[in-house]
Amino acid sequence: MRFLCFGMGAIGTYIGGSLAAAGHELVFIERTAGIEHPLRLEFKDQLIDLPAVTTINSVEKAMTGSPFDAAILAVKSFDTGAVLAEIEPYRHLFPPILCLQNGVENEAAVEEMLGSEKVIGGSVTSAIRRLGVGNAVVEKSRGVGIEEATDLSRELIRIFNQAGIYTRGYKNRASLKWSKMLTNLQANALPAILNWTPYRVLSTPATYAIECAAMCEAVTVMKQMDIRQVNLPGTPVKPWVNAMTRWPLRTSRPLIARLLGSGRGGKMPSLHIDLYAGKKQTEVVFLNGAVVRAAERLGLAAPVNQVLTQLLTGMVRGEISFEHFNDHPERIQQVMMEQI
User: Fold this and answer.
1) What backbone torsions phi and psi does residue 264 show, to the nearest 5 degrees?
2) Given strand 167-170, what is the order of strands in its sheet?
3) Residue 4 CB coordination number (10 Å)
4) Cβ atoms < 10 Å from Cβ of 63
5) Distance between CA atoms of 165 and 217, rounded to whole angstroms?
6) Neighbours of 206 (CB within 10 A)
7) In contact, 166 and 142? CB cutoff 8 Å
8) What's the mean per-residue pLDDT of the chain?
9) pLDDT tens digits, 154-178
10) 99-121 residue pLDDT tens
């Protein structure tokens, strides 16, 4: 198959590199790369080392060549709007898009432009560390979930598995995407705000209580929307969410800290990486913020997720200094008490 892949970060390199190594034709849209760019993807027992993959810097250039069978959206959620603006002039010619981004709102945005028949939801559960453009290490190979709704989506599941990416099909997109977002909510915003490791956040009583409260808000929203939790490839979502939202905190804390605190491979969570890389946007708006927006539509409140969104957004914008909350969980607790 012929794929157009947006992005050569961790996900784009993982998916695109695996497909290219399996013999599929990949064209990457990556603004920082040249016409040809090396791709290196390292597994524990395998190395994909492609000396040159085709890269271009615009959708316009992509649409001048042979047609694509599918596109892969592997950019941050805050870049989706810019990608869609570039696709818009070619919307009637554009291929179906597999959305592998975090969050639960990207597919709806793509559907609004291209129509529901051209959107396939997906989620990546493998832990991948980006070393550079087109250069990544797979630290924990778990797999991919793909919405099983069309002949093309079923073909993608088959092709991904043949390419060595363990992939499962899911009948319900909302269950797939929301369940994945639960994993993105866990020990992500707080480690960024506090500059703590996920293990420290999950093993400290005060911060673990905040994590569980945020998770309870998300689960409540899912229940109100009649969205079921599902286990994901290599990720038993339902048991640990049940532990965080139903068990006594002192009972679940050591278990969750041990199981999930080390579950990200050797990397800090994505929100911490982006914050300390100096990025001017943050996906917390599309993770914790998405819980807040969904709650508001239901006439509910999600105050813990709202505070986490506000604090991290303020840090990214330069309105709150990194030092203010750095290693100061009591200050976050104070903000929570004032606003909740």
Assistant:
1) -100, 15
2) 127-132, 135-140, 36-42, 47-56, 25-29, 2-6, 70-73, 97-99, 119-124, 144-147, 167-170
3) 25
4) 15
5) 33
6) 11
7) yes
8) 96
9) 999 999 999 999 999 999 999 999 9
10) 999 999 999 999 999 999 999 99
DSSP 72-141: EE-S-GGGHHHHHHHHGGGTTTPPPEEE--SSSSHHHHHHHHH-GGGEEEEEE-SEEEEEETTEEEEEE-
Nearest to 96 by CA among 77, 76, 82, 110: 110
SS3 2: strand
Residue 329 gets which letter from DSSP? Answer: H
Task: Measure the CA dihedral 100/17/30/121, to 10°.
Answer: -10
Distance CA 50, CA 253 (A): 43
- What is 201-221 written as a DSSP string? HHHSHHHHHHHHHHHHHHHHH
pTM to 2 decimals?
Answer: 0.96
Task: Name the β-bridge partners of 97.
Answer: 71, 119
Buried b (16+ CB within 10 A) or exposed e, 35-55: eebebbbbeeeeebebeebeb
> Measured between alpha carbons, how far is 134 from 25 in angstroms, rounded to an integer?
16
> What's the CA gap between 65 and 68, in Å, rounded?
9
Calpha distance 161→159 (Å, rounded):
5
Q: Does domain 2-171 have CATH number 3.30.70.100?
A: no
One CATH from 2.40.30.60, 1.10.390.10, 1.10.3380.30, 1.10.1040.10 for 177-339: 1.10.1040.10
Q: Are 305 and 218 in contact (CB under 8 A)?
A: yes
Question: Which contiguous run of DSSP H or E holds residue 271?
Answer: helix 270-276
Q: What are the residue ranges spanned by the domains of the chain?
A: 2-171, 177-339
**What are the angstrom distances between the C-alpha of 113 and each of 19, 95, 337?**
27, 12, 42
Q: Please provide the distance, in angstroms rounded to a whole number, between the alpha carbons at the two ends of the chain.
A: 51
Contact 108, 290 (CB under 8 A): no
Distance separating alpha carbons of residues 242 and 224, to the nearest angstrom: 17
Give the pLDDT confidence score for residue 33 in this predicted structure.
63
